[in-house]
Design a protein that fits this description.
Order of helices and strands: HHHH
Helix content: 55-70%
Largest sheet: none
Structural class: mainly alpha
């Protein structure tokens, strides 16, 4: 991403994923970003969060981990180029 890139204010993970470089988009395609959406926004207000099952937490954390790994791999490639 370039410093001159302007982003509109949004918490929509699908929109934000679409703004990423093609390599990152390819890595996150097919991930259930909508499932992660609730936790991306509502976590700002933890008292209002519903209880989460261990199974759902594992799924959501897996999605988040794949996103972080995809971006980290992209950034590591950028720094070595």
């Amino acid at each position: 991403l370039h410093a001159s890139t302007e982003f509109r204010k949004t918490h929509d993970l699908v929109v934000l994923a679409g703004l990423q470089p093609a390599a990152v988009q390819a890595d996150v395609t097919g991930l259930d970003l909508q499932q992660l959406q609730q936790w991306a926004v509502d976590a700002r207000y933890p008292a209002d969060l519903p209880d989460i099952s261990a199974e759902e937490a594992a799924i959501v954390l897996g999605v988040a981990d794949r996103i972080v790994c995809a971006i980290a791999e992209f950034l590591m490639g950028e720094t070595s180029a």
